[in-house]
Amino acid sequence: MTDILAVTDHRRGELRDVSYETITAGRQLADETGGDLHVAVVSGPVGDFAEKLNREGVDVVHTVEYGEEFNHDVYTQVVTQLYDELAPQYVLAPNSVNGLGYAPAVANALDLPLVTDTVGLETDGETLTATREMYGGKVETANELTGNAVVTIRGAEWAGADGTGDAEIREFHAEIDEDAIRSSVTGFEEVGGGDVDISEADVLVSVGRGIEEEENLELIEELADALDATVSSSRPIVDNGWLPKNRQVGQSGKVVTPDVYIAIGISGAVQHVAGMKGSETIVAINTDPNAPIMDIADYAIHDDLFDVVPALTEEFQ
Amino acid sequence: MKILVTVKEVSTVEDEFEIEGTTIADQYLGADLNEWDDYAIEEAVQLQEAGIADEVVTVTIGPEECEQTIRQALAKGADRAIRVWDDALEDVDLLDVGAKTAILRTVVEAEEPDLVLTGVQSGDDNWGGTGVSLAEELGFEWGAVVNHLEHDLEDGTASVRRELEGGVEELTEIELPAALTIQTGINEPRYASLRGIRQAQRKELDVHTLGDLGVDEGAVEGAVTVTDMYEPESETDATVWEGSPEETASELGELLREKGVAP
Amino acid sequence: MNVLAQTEVTRETYWGLSSTEYALFYLLATVTILVFLYGVYSRFTRYTAGDDDPFARLDNLASRIVSSTKIVLSNEKQFDRDLYGGLMHAFIMWGFLTLLIATTILFIDGYFWEPFQGSFWVGDFYLAYQFIVDAMGLLFVVGIGMAMYRRYWVRNERLWDRHTSSEDDIFIWTLFALGVGGFLLEGLRIYATGMPDHEIVSFVGWGLALLFQTIGLPVVEGTATDPNYTALGVLGFNAETFHWLAWWSHSLIAFFFIAWIPYAKPFHMLSSFANVVTRDENAGKRLPNVPADLDATNAESIEDFTWKEMLDQDACTKCGRCSSVCPAKASGRPLDPRNVILDLKKYREHRAEGGEQQPIIADGGTSVIDTETMESCMACMACMDACPVEIEHLQSFTRLNRQMTDQGDVDPGMQDVFQNVMQNGNTFGDSQRSRGEWADDLEFDVADAREQEVDYLWYVGDYPSYDDRNKKVARSLATILQEADVSFGILFDDEKYDGNDIRRVGEEFLYVELAGHHVETWDDCEFDKIVCTDPHSYNTFKNEYPEVDFEEFADDPMMPFDYEQRWNKDGEIDVYHWTQAVEELVDERRLELSGTELDYTVTYHDPCHLGRYNDEYEAPREIIKATGCELDEMPRNRADSFCCGGGGGGLWMEFDEEPKPSEERLREALEDTDAGSSIEKFVVACPMCMTMYEDGRKTGGFEDDIEVVDVAELLVEAIDAQEKAGLKIAAAD
Ligand SMILES: Cc1cc2nc3c(=O)[nH]c(=O)nc-3n(C[C@H](O)[C@H](O)[C@H](O)COP(=O)(O)OP(=O)(O)OC[C@H]3O[C@@H](n4cnc5c(N)ncnc54)[C@H](O)[C@@H]3O)c2cc1C
Ligand code: SF4
Ligand code: SF4
């Protein structure tokens, strides 16, 4: 009753980073409850995966062989059965697109409370306090619950587990009800290709909703020209059709690591930060000094982009 | 075919605000139709215009004040709306995924839609779990984070694209009945004109209490409670440049030259 | 037939016709007139089947007809911007009218006069008649020649587009044939009747007769004096036969032409005149209201168009003047105002012939008009100003825009603006609480007009309140009013967006809500005059708010205002653009100004909403001159001004433009004015123009060449009050 079950994520033969982060979060909770950390990996080359998941602090890795890729029906069934088998206190899953595809279903099937997108977790063995963000990161809230729960954790909030552990690797024979699998993945497609590869750029001038109107993009383009840099953006700019998909930085766009990333009128939502936090130097230009982007910025200008950007362009002409 | 769309009125916060207890003080809050739901409504209405759906019904959990937002959805083309509210909900400070599932399930059972569309998440508290949880509860199939839906549901399956991380999309076939959580960018939401909103006043908007729906008051209390709200401590160790735009721009210019990345 | 009194000079109209031919002629004439009347009748029944027009168009009919006749006869509209076109049209029209009158005189003489008291078409009258007809007929032919030269030789661009068709060719060639044929006929008659001396007054015909004489065209002896002569009796290679042929072809062409009038382009002779008669003097600047009735449709089908809008379509002569002045077309936006009018016409005719139904306006090429086309319109009214036949493009265009809004087909940028207005009350989506913050940097306080009585209630406007560049204009103006010692106040957070442009983009009910809020607020304040910074606000307060029927919305829960009268019905409240108010102050010497303070060379851009919309051209110019600046005019000035690109929602939408209107105007200022590149400042009098030109200055690379300033900024500099306005840090600093 004090154990933790952490479910991992992989795609097209690769474990995703968030899997190791889930392990770290799981280990932390297990330390607090005094229980064991069970890790589960479902579908794909589970044997190989299990080896990799055997990081410091992992007690058991459960492998479930079934198909190659993620299927939410399979994951829901497997995790429910693992829960019945292991009776852990908390089930952890990544707050990834796939995590959100089964964690709520598991919680509902097991009649457990669900807390998603947590950025901090703490338990005294009885009460779990989960920290979440609201209003695009403007505030944080403490959320409490007692008893068992399903929790999804936000990527990059915990460090990835490393080292090698001495976990036992166990095959778990789940009984999959094929009739209950009513969805099938028929393929994958890379989107957002095209002429420009923003992940290759040394300097990115990245623009967000603060630009207000499409025609104002000219300001950004001029700056990029003056700096000999590349233009990228946050998602809403792409959703609006103002820039092509291949310019989008973030979780559902490109991951970029330029020497300098200049975030202009971007609030710094998690899904955006996921794509640019590895940049060597981050500069934020934003009127809101409390915008979450400030947390990861190395340099900041708390001012109106419509004043700063032209001045900066001027500087280089 | 009938489509049920869940619609939420979200709160928006001004740049400067104050916290009172576990909420933000009222005067700094605004209200808006949840961005993701806007796309879900548009998708449903387009299916109706394509002759695939016969009826589009919206369902909202919220007090009377949010009818303005519901009318926006009606103005965009939904046929009628259902609003659920109850004194018992007045006191619940966080309606968690389980509680929403319990309420919405009764509505779905009464309406018997073939397709339920929800937004991926709501813009204010981004729980992102209701659609999938509801589907599981109902025995519906589901798809999370859908950014494309083929407008051909003939053979009882929905062909969708799910937007994964890193610019990858997953092509998936989903059997109906199903709940899909709709991602932004799937379409171009239309505008709800004031004429449309005024016209929407004539559309049916049924209000149900928990009692009407047969939902137990205990079920909505939720297992999760919010005990604190605060502005995150700025972890920033950023160097903040101050001064006129010219001054700050020249500081930045300096940095870029130092890094050798600018002319 | 008619035996002539040989004593007085005259001529035989039906010379050489047999009685059978004469009867045939009358039969044809009758048929022609019937076909003509039927055509006109069916046109007009179509108009009466159209929806009622929201405006009175047939009131004071007599004076309408008088003023329209003046407009039409003077050809003033045709001369506007185009001397050649004016001359050409005047020649043709005056020639045609003269020939028409001449024929009518003959008709009256032949049927009502001659049978009873003998013809009056004899003697001196006859001679004068012949002379005038020849002279005007010559002008007519010259006009036609000019038209043909322009159409076929120069191939004037505006005459050729997708609606140019064979009817245009047939029209011009028929007129040509009538004019030239008439002269040939005359020449042959004079020649064949032995060139009577008095006929020299018909100088063109005489000249042709001389020509026939020179080439020695054979004549049959005695036909001129034989009362029983018929051309059929002498058929052969002779002048009589040619005359006979010319006579018949001339008559047949004339019959064809008359019968054809109601069915094609020549109908403009009637429809255009009718259109001028039924014009609305306030068209464009005061848009029609929409019924509060929720089921009323705007442009769901062609049936929604009013009779006047249909008449507009029929009155169009395809001259292309509207398109040639349209800034949207000039900048490559997908709009051609003529084509919109004619596409609607074509679709209407297509439906009348049982053609398939199409949506009137939609996205993606399935509709009569594309949404992109209407998004492009800047509502600048240049087209209406240029149209010689008073077509009211903006009435139809607004109908289309309203339909787009009803359908939800609204550009995302525009949607945001609507949403901002709906939720916050301003186009910026900023908090209304911060609306008055622009005044914080002033050295004095601005009164709250809700709390104290003022002379001038100043409506600051969205851009001057929220946009940093325009805040400087607001502060300049505040300081000017303060220095002139007038009592003025503003509404702070009770001032919302004025609604002018969203009305033009089609969001009518949101407009009504805003108007209701303002009139309700004003009702609770004590003031004499309303002064606006923005010509757009000025236009809608002055021309449109008084026409909104607030009572219709009294019970509407979505219309939160509590106001049921007509606002300012009798005009007891004066509405001013600030330049008008300040011009008065300058005249009254309320500002310290010697007229030598500044010595910049500047040019001035007439904002559409101040100039073309409201005919105010001089007030801003007077103020500029009063500062001592040298004002050098733009080539396209006053009513010919060219929109900055910001009107009609252009400020909030993105277009592929080449060249951008703002860049084009700045270029015009620096290249085409007399002072050329020595123009230092580009002076504007509208916050939207300011925004567009500041942008054009950057994107067009004009930053080092020219500055964009508001008239108020010049004036505040001239009275040396920039510090007070918080525009300049005190020199002691
Ligand atoms: C499943 C999923 C995947 C997603 N994937 C991505 C992704 O890959 N990439 C991504 O970017 N987003 C993604 N998002 C969306 C993300 O949650 C945010 O909505 C988005 O990143 C916000 O973009 P933004 O910062 O441009 O806009 P906002 O959050 O609206 O921020 C605008 C910022 O501009 C500032 N500002 C406004 N005016 C000015 C001015 N004049 N001068 C200076 N600053 C100004 C404001 O203070 C504000 O901070 C995803 C969401 C979901 C649910
Ligand atoms: S109003 Fe102006 S932009 Fe619109 S069609 Fe007429 S000339 Fe063109
Ligand atoms: S609308 Fe007027 S200006 Fe335009 S082509 Fe027709 S007649 Fe000419």
By helix and strand content of chain B, what is the structural category?
alpha/beta
Main sheet specs of chain B? 9 strands, mixed
Order of helices and strands of chain B: EEEEEHEHEHHEHEEEEHEHEEH
For the terminal residues of chain B, how far apart are their CA atoms?
61 Å
Roughly what percent helix of chain A? 25-40%
- Please give the oligomerization state of what you see: heterotrimer
Assign the CATH superfamily of the largest domain in chain A: HUPs
CATH top level of the largest domain in chain A?
A: Alpha Beta
Spans of at least 5 consecutive residues with low confidence of chain B: none
Low-confidence stretches of chain A: none
Rg of chain B, Cα atoms, Å: 22 Å
Tell me the CATH topology of chain B: Rossmann fold
What does this structure look like?
The complex is a heterotrimer of chains A (about 325), B (about 260) and C (about 725). Chain A is an alpha/beta fold and about 325 residues long. Chain A is built from nine helices and 17 strands. Chain A has two domains: about 5-180, HUPs (Rossmann fold, 3-Layer(aba) Sandwich); about 200-315, 3-Layer(aba) Sandwich (Rossmann fold), CATH 3.40.50. In chain A, α8 links the parallel β16 and β17. Chain B is an alpha/beta fold and about 260 residues long. Helices cover about 30% and strands about 30% of the residues of chain B. Chain B has eight helices and 15 strands. Chain B has helices spanning about 35-50, 65-75, 85-90, 95-110, 130-140, 195-200, 210-215, 245-260; strands at about 1-5, 10-15, 20, 25, 30-35, 55-60, 80-85, 115-120, 140-150, 155-165, 170-175, 180, 205-210, 225-230, 240. In chain B, the strands form three sheets. A nine-stranded mixed β-sheet of chain B has the order 11-10-9-12-8-1-6-7-13, sandwiched between helices. A two-stranded antiparallel ribbon of chain B has the order 2-5. Chain B has a two-stranded antiparallel sheet with strand order 3-4. In chain B, α2 crosses α6 and α4 (about 95-110) crosses α5 (about 130-140). The model of chain B has no long low-confidence stretch (mean pLDDT about 95). With about 725 residues, chain C is mostly helical. Chain C has four domains: about 5-15 and about 75-270, no CATH class; about 315-410, no CATH class; about 425-585, no CATH class; about 595-720, Rossmann fold. Helices cover about 50% and strands about 5% of the residues of chain C. Chain C contains 27 helices and eleven strands. Chain C has a five-stranded parallel β-sheet. In chain C, β6 (about 530), α22 and β7 form a beta-alpha-beta unit. The N and C termini of chain C lie far apart (about 105 Å). The chains are: A alpha/beta (about 325), B alpha/beta (about 260), C mainly alpha (about 725). Chains in contact: A-B, A-C, B-C. β9 of chain A pairs antiparallel with β14 (about 225-230) of chain B. The complex binds flavin-adenine dinucleotide and iron/sulfur cluster (2 copies). Flavin-adenine dinucleotide sits at the interface of chains A and B.
